[in-house]
Write a structure and sequence with these properties.
Rossmann fold, 234 residues, alpha/beta, 9 helices, six-stranded mixed sheet
Amino acid sequence: MPEPLLKVAGLNAFYGESHVLHGVDLEVRSGELVTLIGRNGAGKTTTLKSIVGMIADRRGSITLEGRELVDLASHRIARLGLAFCPEERGIFASLDVEENLMLPPEIAVGGMGLDDIFRLFPNLKERLKSQGTKLSGGEQQMLAIARILRTGARLLLLDEPTEGLAPVIIEQIGAAIGELKAKGFTILLVEQNFRFAAEVADRFYVMEHGRIVDEIGIADLDQRRSDIEAYLGV
C-alpha cells in the first residue's frame, strides 16, 4: 500500500480544560474519499479543525505527505495544499458570488478555473452577481465548496456538506463530490447522512466520544450495516 497522504496518530485536542479528542488515529491515501461518521458530539468536526490548525491545543502527530503539521499555524497548513470547507460555510455577506469565489489566494498550480467551477455548479453562474447570503442554502454550500477549489488544494476537508439541504440539492452535491474524486482530489468528509456517504466513500471511520472505534471498507458495508446503525443510533 502507498504511504498515506494524510496521517493522524495519537491526536488529542482540548477546548480549555475539556479533553475532546482522545488519541485519534486515521489515514487518508491519495485519491481516496474517507468519511468520518458518528453521532453529534463525537468529535468529527473537532478532528477536521485540529488537522487544519484551528484548535489551539492539539497534541500528537498530523502529517501531510510526511510533513508534520501539529506545530504549524493554520495559514501555513493551508499553503501546503489542504483546504477546509466548514459546516457554517463562511460566505461573506457583503460580497457577491463572483467576489466570494475570487477571494481565496492561489496556493498551488492547478486550481480550478471559473469555467470548470460553473460546469460543476451551474447555479453559481446564474447567480454570479447575487450577494452571497441571498443564495439558497444549497447554493451557499456549492459556493463554499467552489471557493476552495480555486486555490489549487488537492486535499479537501468537507464538514457536513449536506446538512439541512433538500434531497435534489443533496443529489447535486453528491454528483459534484463524485466528479472531484474522479479528477484525483483526496477528500476527508464528515457526514451525518449515511445514505449519502455510502454513495461516495471508499472507507468509513466511526467516532465515539472523541475516539475512532471502528473502520469499515465499502466492500464490507452491507455486512456491517447493522453495526453502523447501532453506532449512529438509527
